[in-house]
Structure formats: C-alpha cells, structure tokens
Amino acid sequence: MKLITSSQCIILFVFIISTQGTNLSEENEEYLRFPPNFLLGAATAAYQIEGAWNVSDKGESIWDRFTHKRNGAIVNNDTGDIACDSYHKFREDISLLKELGMKVYRFSLSWPRILPTGFSNKVSKDGITYYHNLIDELLANNIEPIVTLYHWDHPQVIEDAGGWLNPYMIDWFVDYARVVFQEFAPKVKTFITMNEPSDNCIFIYTMGIHAPSKAFLHGIGEYICGENMLKAHARVYRMYQKEFKDIYNGSLGINVHARNFFPKHQNDSESAEIAFQFSIGWLLHPIYSEKGDYPDIMKKLIAIKSQEQGYSRSRLPELEANWVDYIRGTFDFLSINHYTSMIVERGDDKLEPSFYNDQGLIQYQDPNWESTISSWLKVVPEGFGNILRKLAMEYNNPLMYITENGVSGGNTVDDDHRVRYYKNYLKEMLISIYRDKVNIKGYTLWSLIDSFEWSSGYSQSFGIVHVNFSDPERKRTLKKSAHWWREVIKYGSLKICSLENGNFTPIL
C-alpha cells in the first residue's frame, strides 16, 4: 500500500473466499466492473412524480381520492397533486438522466391520464401526447424507455366498480393495455405489466395503508386481488404476443418485490422457504415454474388455517386448470425490486385471518443492522445476493432486470450513506452475475428524483436528485450520490473513490 496525494486514492484489493458466497470482502477487479452492454439507469412512477392531477381531462385516480381525504393516513396529509411537477418538467428530468449518463429510464403510465373514464371508450388526446413527448425526448437522448403499465394508480371509477376484487377488472386492464401498445409499442420495446402486484394487494387488503385501503377484507381480499392481477397480467401478455409481437418484437415482464428472508435458527430453513413462497412464489410460481399454480406449501397452510377458522373452503381461490395452463410461461423477463431483508421464525403475531397469519411466522429485522430513516428499511447487502441466487435457482435462471433498489434519507444533498448503500448492494449483484451466473442484464436505481413516497408522503427521500418541494419551481439539485453514479456509469465500474472536495477519481 502506497501513500499518495489527496487528489488520488489508496488502492487495496483484498481477496477472501467466503464458504457461503455472500461475503462482501470477496471482491476483485472482475467483480467491480459491469458486464459489456449492461443497462444502468433510474426509475420513477407516475403518481409519485407527475403531479398535474387534474390537468386537461385526466380522470381521478384511487390515490387522488385517498390522499384528498387528508385523514392522517399519509404523513403530513401530503398529496401527489403537484409532486415533482414532472408532467411539466419531464424534459428537465430527462436532461438530468442524460447528464448522469443513464442509458435506461423506467417509468410508469397513469391509467386515468390515458383513459379519463377508466374505460377504453374515451382516450385522452392530451394524455397520449404527454407520453409520446416523454418517450420521444428519451429516444432523442439515446435513453431506452422501460414502461410500467400499472404502478398502483388505477381510475377511481374502476375502484367504485370493485377494483381488483371484480373479475371484470381483467378485461378493463387488457383494454387499457391494448391502447398503450397501439400508441407506444412502435417506440417502446420493454414493458412491465404491473409493479409489485403481491405487495399492492397486501398493502390494500391486509394492512390498509395504501389506496383504496380495505383492510376490513383481510384474509380474503388480498387473495382475490392477487388472482385477478395474475390473470390480468397473463391476458395482457397473451394479447401482446398475438397482436403486437410479430410487428414490434418487444418484451414483457412482471415485477416482484423480492425481500430476502433469513431464518432465525440455522436448522429452520423451512421458515425462510415458507416466507419466500408466500411473498414471492405466490404470484411468480404460476408464471415461472414448470408446474404452475400457487406454491404447494401456500395452498396447504391457507387451507389448514381456513378450516381452523371455520371457513367452508380455503380462503385462497383455486386456479382452474385452464388458467394454470394459460398463465404458465407468460414472461420474457423478471423485473425485481429489492431494498432490505427480514428475519423469520415460527409464531403467529399478525392479524387473523390474513396473509401474514396464514404463514405461521414472525417477521422482524435485526436491531444490529444499519438503520435508515425508514423503519422498514435496514441495510443488509448480503440479502441482495442471496435473493438473486434464490430466484435464479427457483425459476431456472430467467432473464432479470433490477428495476428498483435504493435507500431513503433526509432532506440533504450530502447522502454518503446512499453512496455506501449502492456500492455494497451493487457489489453483491455483480458477484451473483460473475461467480454465480445469475442472468441479470440491467439495473435501474430507485429513484431518479425525490418524490411522493406513498404513506410516507415527502417525509422520506429516495432520490439521487434533491427536489425542493417548498419551491413552486420544484428546483432539482444533484446529490453526492448522483455525482457518484455519473462516474460509475462513465467508467462502468464501482472502483470510484470519494474525495474530500466532492470530486471523484476512477481507479484504473
């Protein structure tokens, strides 16, 4: 090791082989560089950044209705009415992507902005024009769009008709998707049908913390919601294959929030497996496994609990054989969101009956793990590598894109903790790619800019670009993490050192 000037970095490579394969100190030059043609970019979602909630003929969304109640369900009674005002400032956001060297941008579409009545009888000219302009601006700057059709914000009129508990929602979602493909498939080659469908159902019907908040249906509502979302995804996939694939040759995937589960006791791997199959396997197993259908352990445990609770049948609806065959294989890639990990052990401590109680597990986080401003988000880099390997093993190593990964922070541009988070989590991802051959082709961080964070409102920030929400102009300012990302993308490597003056120097 050689001492050098303050304008340079101290280089130290340590090679330690971990018997479990998750030690972050197992690093070498190969593990710190991104593979050739690996896509690096950022992600956002429509309701969280667009604002313009009642501009033109846009319809009311379930989040418009939910936040406007201002009943304390959202921190500070915040709303997405203006948010980052990206509806008017999308070109500025794209200029930030370009400045940082991002090659891909994952964003979502607002269903009620495109279909103001909720249904395909009326297509908004202004809504369509907005997204065409956004996509055109991305392509003009050599940034590839990844478009999510649904990120939790369906039209309120659809919810008034039952939302995801109504089986007709499947048809309505397919109608919406067809309009999207007709308009944007010539320009967009990568689509994601839904963001975190299992979490969406749980947050609405188990926990009641997200719009439209129907926790009184816990134990039943989440499973009906999941079934209808799964069928809607499959119908959209099959429709694209039949009507658009031969013309535009695009690809479709579904998204999952993939937490990692550590068993409290080393000899209790079954607890971690149960948590995985409920949380992730629930809606991925029917799509990605050769057998199809829900995981066996999930069907078994819910049936037992349902019987004990006096129900005449399992609260988990049975997938009919024709749907099992129809759903299986409806994917081109797997879209993964990951933030943190959990510890699991046997026990019942959740609402009964419910998604959590059905598992017979207690889930919590180690108090010794690094904390963040978000109570649910502890920093556990090794969990990222673990879950990537688990997904590869469970589902025959499908093509994967990491479409959300990031950490919250306060209202500051000095976010060293975020740089540290990204560096350590990305190391784990690269180890899984190089050593374990996990088939990952791209990564979009969460998120490009600070935004409305659902029930947390604007109290927690995930962006690498600061947004001043007290400024009518919503001024954007690059954080330290944004400067770090610019160098990482420029050199295609994590071997970037931070210097006291805020500049970065690559280790070549």
Structural description of this entry:
- The radius of gyration is 22 Å and the shape is globular.
- The protein has 508 residues and is α/β, with parallel strands linked by helices.
- Helix 7 packs parallel to helix 9, helix 8 runs antiparallel to helix 9 (221-243) and helix 15 packs parallel to helix 16 (416-434).
- It has helices at residues 46-49, 62-68, 86-100, 111-114, 125-140, 156-160, 168-184, 197-206, 221-243, 245-248, 269-288, 296-308, 321-327, 355-359, 381-394, 416-434, 480-491, and strands at residues 39-43, 104-108, 144-150, 190-194, 251-257, 260-263, 333-337, 341-346, 361-364, 400-404, 440-446, 465-467, 476-478, 496-498, 504-506.
- Residues 1-26 have low confidence and may be disordered.
Quick structural gist:
The chain is of the alpha/beta class and 508 residues long. The protein has helices at residues 46-49, 62-68, 86-100, 111-114, 125-140, 156-160, 168-184, 197-206, 221-243, 245-248, 269-288, 296-308, 321-327, 355-359, 381-394, 416-434, 480-491; strands at 39-43, 104-108, 144-150, 190-194, 251-257, 260-263, 333-337, 341-346, 361-364, 400-404, 440-446, 465-467, 476-478, 496-498, 504-506. Strands 1-2-3-4-5-7-10-11 form an 8-stranded parallel beta barrel, surrounded by 4 helices. A 3-stranded mixed β-sheet has the order 6-8-9.
